[in-house]
Design a protein that fits this description.
Layout lengths: L8 E2 L6 E2 L4 E8 L2 E8 H17 L26 H13 L12 H10 L1
Antiparallel strand pairs: 1-2, 3-4
């Protein structure tokens, strides 16, 4: 007994089958999120036409894909957007005011909020 496995690509937009060689896998990014969509040729043409004016007006960014932009200032390199010095001041203040805070790592939002309220 023989078995034949058939792989069929489906257009992500309209759910119709994509004939071999007549579709496109389109990768794009929007607001920091990467996307991929498989489209039949007609829908790929519609996609191209829809984004064309935006692509023509945009500045092309070269470099590694998915790489995040670096912080504008080395002082604001933490996830909280605060400098290392400010984070250390928060740790010092928290320790003196009865909060448990590790010498390194993330500081709880409630501690940062309390620090902000006190200053």
């Amino acid at each position: 007994m023989a078995e034949k496995l058939i792989r069929q690509l489906i257009d992500d937009l309209d759910g119709k089958p994509i004939d071999d060689g007549f579709g496109d896998r389109i990768e794009f990014s929007y607001q920091g999120t990467d996307y991929v969509i498989d489209l039949r040729a007609t829908n790929a043409e519609k996609f191209d036409a829809a984004v064309k004016p935006f692509v023509e007006a945009a500045a092309k960014v070269s470099g590694k894909r998915g790489k995040k932009a670096q912080a504008a200032s080395p002082q604001a390199a933490s996830g909280s957007g605060r400098s290392k010095e400010t984070l250390q001041a928060i740790r010092d203040w928290a320790g003196k005011n009865g909060y448990e805070v590790a010498p390194r790592g993330r500081i709880k939002a409630e501690i940062i909020d309390a620090f902000d309220a006190a200053h």
